[in-house]
Design brief:
Shape: globular
Structural class: alpha/beta
Order of helices and strands: HEHEHEHEEEHEHHHHHHHHEEEHEEEE
Oligomer: single chain
Number of helices: 14
Number of strands: 14
Helix content: 25-40%
Strand content: 15-25%
Strand order of the largest sheet: 7-12-13-11-10-9-8
Number of domains: 2
Distance between the termini: 31 Å
Length: about 425
């Protein structure tokens, strides 16, 4: 029985891009729902990994790739990167047809370097798709809209029904569409299967270079232990050396990290670099994150109860969950997510920067005890930013795992993750 399709935030973004571009490339981690979303938006489909037809498809791609483009439009070309010549064929077809909304390309890996002749600029729009946010999986009530906060609607009052236990389960299950609605045992198995596929298969296919599964597992363990931190390459190498795996050089770890990035398993948060009133040095290290927090718990073989037994680590995993959802919501309103840290020790877990210049700073706190300190940090950051060169922040927000949403007397918003949407 086919599973009911749950609407995705990407649905609207894809429709908008199809109206203005000849083709849209939908990228993202394997199993995040790209194909199903592409099917919903398309009128004909080509599945390059269909076991009954892929050999004939590859032969056609080698000889007459235009044959694979015939069909009602928008036409879905799923896992196009297995025959990279399709990129140039699509670009050429878009030029010749001169119409928008011709093709949807989906892919769970960036192809090898130099396998396409043209960038596709002006013909092919790009859309990043991630695992489902809590609003998409119907676990966030969505009573507080990120877009409306940026528009100045900051007088908020709401209640989240997302308990700490439900948050722990959401982290372990992840945002994989096939896991939504499943029980803990099945959902945990899905996440573990995903990690094992990364280790033994997916990380090799991106560049055709065989990688040692034990080394990949050791790297994933280290990334899981350092999730939501600014661990450097040197720190990760040293962390791996403390485990059971053999020592890995910086070069090897860097190559493996690049492969994980290219299959969208890891998605680090870049540092924010605002104009400041003082000469304080801004740290530029990325914050380590997976595409979904369940990758960390699966590689560590953690259950929801296991997370609840270690509230310190739970906090890092909750931050990863929030970063995932913030990225999904921010992309929907033409924005990106960064983090901030300077030499004085001042930090902001997330900074949402819209492309029109508006921005907001966010601290992420699982419980209520740290709200007061978090508000002080946010106000300190606001006062540091040079507003002669940048706008005032649209809002300051503490994103929590608590129940109540409200606006503090100092103007800082307290927003449970279970209330937020794009």
């Amino acid at each position: 029985m086919e599973r009911k399709y749950l609407s995705r935030i990407a649905d609207g973004l894809l429709a908008d891009r199809l109206e203005s571009s000849g083709a849209v490339l939908v990228e993202g981690a394997k199993w995040c729902g790209k194909t199903r979303t592409g099917v919903e938006a398309s009128k004909s489909q080509l599945f390059m990994q269909d076991p009954d037809k892929r050999v004939s498809y590859w032969k056609a791609a080698d000889t007459t790739p235009s044959l694979l483009l015939k069909g009602a439009t928008p036409r879905l070309l799923d896992e196009w990167q297995t025959a990279p010549v399709l990129w140039d064929a699509v670009r050429y077809a878009v030029d010749m047809r001169g119409e928008a909304g011709q093709f949807i390309l989906t892919g769970s890996a960036v192809p090898k370097d130099n396998v396409v002749q043209h960038t596709g600029t002006g013909r092919i729009s790009r859309l990043m798709m991630r695992p489902m946010s809590l609003f998409e999986s119907l676990e966030s009530g969505g009573s507080i809209s990120l877009a409306r906060l940026f528009d100045g609607e900051t007088n908020i009052e709401s209640i989240s029904e997302l308990t700490i236990e439900k948050i722990a389960f959401a982290i372990v299950r992840g945002g994989w569409p096939a896991s939504i609605g499943e029980n803990e045992r099945v959902a945990l198995r899905h996440a573990i299967d995903y990690v094992e596929a990364i280790i033994h298969q997916d990380v090799n296919r991106v560049d055709g270079v065989e990688k040692n599964p034990a080394r990949v597992r050791a790297l994933l363990h280290s990334l899981a232990r350092n999730i939501s931190t600014t661990a450097t390459l040197k720190t990760i190498c040293a962390d791996i050396a403390l485990g059971d795996a053999e020592n890995l050089s910086d070069k090897t770890v860097g190559q493996y990290l690049n492969a994980l990035n290219r299959i969208f398993v890891t998605e680090d948060i870049p540092a924010w670099n605002p104009s400041l009133r003082s000469k304080t040095a801004i740290r530029t290290s990325v914050k380590r994150q997976f595409a979904d927090p369940s990758i960390a718990t699966a590689v560590m073989r953690l259950t929801p109860s296991g997370i609840l037994d270690d509230f310190n680590y739970f906090g890092f995993l909750f931050e990863s969950l929030c970063d995932r959802d913030l990225r999904i919501y921010a992309e929907a309103i033409d924005g990106d997510v960064f983090h901030y840290r300077d030499s004085s020790g001042l930090e902001a877990d997330a900074v949402i920067a819209l492309h029109d210049g508006r921005w907001a700073a966010v601290e992420i706190k699982l419980g209520a005890k740290e709200i007061e300190a978090a508000a002080e940090h946010l106000i300190a950051l606001k006062n540091k930013v040079n507003t002669d060169k940048m706008r005032e922040p649209s809002f300051l927000m503490i994103l929590t795992g608590t129940e109540l949403a409200y606006k503090r007397e100092d103007g800082v918003l307290v927003v449970p993750l279970g209330c937020l949407k794009n």
